[in-house]
Hints:
By secondary structure, this protein is mostly helical. Helix content is about 75%, strand content about 0%. It has helices at about 1-10, 10-30, 35, 40-60, 60-70, 75-95, 95-110, 115-135, 140-150, 155-180, 190-200, 205-225, 230-245, 255-270, 275-285, 290-300, 300-310, 315-325, 335-345, 350-380. α6 (about 75-95) runs antiparallel to α7 (about 95-110) and α7 packs parallel to α19 (about 335-345). The longest helix has 29 residues, at about 350-380. It is globular and about 60 Å long.
Amino acid sequence: MKKSLTFIKKEPVFCVAMILALISMCMMGISEKYLEYIDINVLILLFALMAVVAGMREQGIFTVISNAVMKRCKSLRSLALLLSLVNFFMAMLITNDVALITFVPLSLLMLEGQQETDKIWVVVLETIAANLGSMLTPIGNPQNLYLFSYAGYGVGEFIGIMLPVTAVSLVLICAIALCLPKRELTVLKKSIETAKEEKNAPEKCPKWKLFVYPVLFLVCLLAVFHVLSHWIVLLIVLATLLIADRKILLRVDYILLFTFVAFFIFIGNLGEMEAVRNALRALIAGREGYVGILASQVFSNVPAAMLLSAFSDDVAALLWGVNIGGLGTLIASMASLISYKFYAAREGCRIGKYMLVFTLVNVVLLILLTAFMTVWFQVM
Length: 380
């Protein structure tokens, strides 16, 4: 019982998705259409990207980047700004989740001698930067990957849709970071360097792995650009990992993959219910952005994107909505929970203060970007 409760707390979105899928299956009965509901291309690409990025992180490739960042920071303001920018741009390629998993622990280590408020502001800004930076590319986050495949966009078309709101987000993040005090950092450099060396230092890894994973990442991008078939990419990634580094397959977030499967089945079954389908279409039509934002606050932006897309004809507005909707509550983006868990696991953490700063900055940015979205879609 205790293990079950622990799992539910750890994976609430998966549990809700499974319950919804099972309820819809009981209502609709067993059907061979379930296989048709599942977008296998999304699952293949998500699996391949998670495996390859896990391998890159395992080899310490991202640690090299973080070390370069740390060496250039002498004040709280410069550290906050640089880490925000690194998370913002790295999230475009390695997803918001992986960016935060990589850089938040290192930033907390870098801030070990600082005031607790300083740590909170830096982590909050990193989290927001990763969530907003990931908006720009199809592989930046799971909801983008799903909607990119669902709508059949080209990469250039997708980036063109998301570029305006991403650019404005970058300006807002930089403005907040520059408002932080220019306080000198108090750092025990030897302790930091030792910790970094102990954690997957690239020089301790076989050199050929440092070459293989970037190549596999490029192979995944070829599927995104529709150059290679998703099945060919899956075959290449699986064969390489099984031969060269099979333990990486254990690093893949299979729970996320099954969450997608459960939502595919649930949404497919909803689409078969005419009354529900008509009601949702009437609710969403012309309000995709706003409904996407509100839905994300309640049950996170990934499931919001999957649910609403089936009843919407304006995927571009929905894209803006669910990505801007990653701001706001702590559960609006599951990536935000990653940062929170890293911060809350430390001794001396001030959870109440963290939630206050997190909510304040998120709500302000949510209001500003929602206003920008309103103006942009009216003008365009």
